[in-house]
Amino acid sequence: MLNNGYTFIADGRQYTVIEQLGSGANTVVYLAQCSHGELMTKCILKEYALHDNDDIEVGKARFIASGNMQNTIRQKSVLTNQTPPVSHVFEANGTAYIDVACYNGTTLDKLDSLTLPQYMALCETIAKTVGYYHKSGFLCLDLKPENIFIVQNAPDDTITQLVEFIDFDSIRDVNNGGNTLFSYTRDWAAPEQLNPYAATKISMAADIYTVGEIVFYLLIGRHSNDTEHRGFSRFPFEDCKSEYHKYSERPDIQALFTRLFRNTIRSSATNRFQTIDEVTKLLGALVELLNQKDYIIPILPSVSPDFVGRDTEIRQIAESLQTNHVLYLTGVGGIGKTMLVKNYIARYRTEYDVIAYLEYDGDIQHTFCDDVQLQISTVSRQDGEPLDEYFARKLKAFKRICGGRRVLFVLDNYTDRLTKDLSRIIDCGYETIIATRQKPSKNSFAVLEVGAIADTSELFRLVTLNLERTPTKEERLCFEEIITLIQGHTLVLELIARQIAAGRLDIHTALDLIRENGFSRFSGEKIGNIKDGEEVYDTLSAIISALFKASAVDNTARLTLKILALLNVRGLETSLVEKFFPTIQLETVSKLSAEGWLYDDNRIRLHPVIAETVRNWLWSADDVTVMDYHKKMIDIYAGMTNDVQIKEILREADIFRDKHPRHIITAMYYDMLGCYYDTLANGRYVPYTEEEAEILQNMFDSMDKAIKEAELSSDASSEKKLTGYYLDLASILIRSVPEEFDEAAELLDKVYDLIEENTDNHCYYCMVAAWYYTLAVPDIEETRRLTEQAEEIARQVFPIDLEIIDIIHIPTANCYFYHNDFRSAADKIEEAVEICRKYPDMIPYIDKQAELLNILLDIYTEMQDTARCRELIAEIDHINETYKEQGVCREVSPDKRNQI
């Protein structure tokens, strides 16, 4: 082995070693400088390395023959570009050397920054190159990343259309592959290469295996194992690098990779593709899919390991969808419909090109248009775009992308009758599963009613999983009676087992509860066949409430569940729950999760049956605090512009208001109603249509009612809330009705004497006054003074940076923008961006950063700073590309992009 800087002369050429590049079974490779007369070049210098058991003369002869073979192969017209030329084969220093021309680039094993589409494009080129060898009468037999040279114009400019093979010691005639010695690398070799008794069976299939293994390694990050070498093997796509998931989770991509692996990395050569051309063709299709600009980003549901006893139903779903493109999956709440459909998706995902799984949130348009649930790579809702228009545009794009492909569309927890908008989706002709408690109208769609699990042994498996141990003999006898009394209802069974596991219940107490509250009053009739679903549901609620009460869960846990029951079916990120509801302790959430009352997998949510039950419980807090919880939840969904869920929370607030008819409670209700109309207005305070005018009028009416009720209240909290209502009204008047500027000024005067210094209302007052000196009586210095004072107060009273950005930075920048002080506006948003960058792992801050960058884009567009605009677009695109799967989607509008 030669040291760096070592120089020697052979055949009139001087070689100086620059660095060692690598080594193989019998070769060391160097980067060297070669001087030949006045010509000085860099080269790849390959040195034969003698091993202890080698015959040096035999080894050198084989090594020199490989150099000559390299030049022989280069003479083949189809392999000229794929074979680097050998400049010189010679002996020196007691061994042999091969001097090979040097190009810019590196070997495949040293590339670590390419995208999955780039890697697969290289694999397609590798397969094509192997095909050239096979057509020229050669086998490769020692393909591996170290032996594949990738040409690069620069470190960040890799050529994927050309590769060079750089080790020729194992190249053999296609008709003589197993009859002469050759070297190979165990990790990359086909099984027949490793078997000394199978040498005569070595053929083109060995190279086909190795190409498949290279693809597997680049995708998964490890070598395949024996269990992955079968015709029915499943592959661990979830183990890919996180940056590959946007591709590897797509069912169409998975299907192609699965087909590739099942026909290349097989133990038996006869089970592989017959020719490398089939591999090349499949890789070409894969590369085409990976480079598609339009595609559905897969957001597939996670599957619990606690799934038991539904194999028959899964087969029935598959059989039904073969003959009926729409299937209603019905059954009472908590019977296991969601778990069933999720496991159908997991089991059959490779059969589909596209899978869209949506959880119904109360409105089909809103559900379909939710860019967190259903993501299309090139489509997102633009600011101010009406929901119905976006629904039509998104559905059109969905149909375009899915044309001619096998698609599964799943709508889970659907609670409505068939609507016109749902019909528009169904009419696309995709295989559609609608999981619902309601049956469709008679003779309209195929129906599979999910009943109790019939196999008692499977139900005991479920008990064991939730107990986290095997039940005792006594427990087993009690569970047998419980199973009969609840007619195998899986949710109830899980809850009982979880309470026993947590030490909240003993089996005898649980049995007594079920004897009292079970389904026995329905006689022998199965609960799924009871015509009156409400009666069944009342019984479920009674059982759940009785279990909760008997479990002696404290009031803190009860209040936590009551608050969280206001969330929609998709729940909310744990980090947001923690920040917006500081009274909710994560320890309490963790205990409730362990006991089965809620799910907490970085997103807290309740089972719909439990949520509906909990909503019927009485609140364990005073009435003003309860309404504050409703308002806080509405504020969260207002930030998401989710008017559908706000409407649901309002319904709950209205029920509570009826039971607590005090002026302050009514005032708080109308304040929330105003927030709903404000969300519908979406910042359009100057109406251009009749619909916008009606929304604005409803908002003013709600504000007036909130103020009047608060003025009549003698509650201790009424003055503070009234002050807030005055400020809200003044803020809207200033931004919407110029002729009402005087009324806004009167409201500000009225508020001035009511506010306490350094409180949240004091902060709001300063910001509303800043708007007054921006739009009503323009005075930039007064605006600046007020916004600076507001920010100073905000930092004392608002603990969350996200709130400060929304309350201070964005409106302050807007004020400066209206004053035409674009530099100050940009600086304020840049400051907020830096705040967001302090939270690189928190999605809400990453999403806010993307929103802020879009605001900056508007400002710099106005400043005509095109270079900065291009930088911002690139940064926004990068954030969307990186975090779209986590729901970050703040696209630049096409018009703005074209303008810049």
UniProtKB/TrEMBL annotation:
SMART domains registered for this protein in UniProt: S_TKc
Superkingdom to which the source organism belongs: Bacteria
GO MF terms listed in the record are: ATP binding; protein kinase activity
Task: Give residue ranges for domain Protein kinase.
Answer: 15-328
Swiss-Prot/TrEMBL keywords = Kinase, Transferase
- What InterPro entries would the database entry show? Kinase-like_dom_sf, P-loop_NTPase, Prot_kinase_dom, TPR-like_helical_dom_sf
Q: Where are the transmembrane segments?
A: none
Q: Which PROSITE patterns match?
A: PROTEIN_KINASE_DOM
Q: What is this protein called?
A: Protein kinase
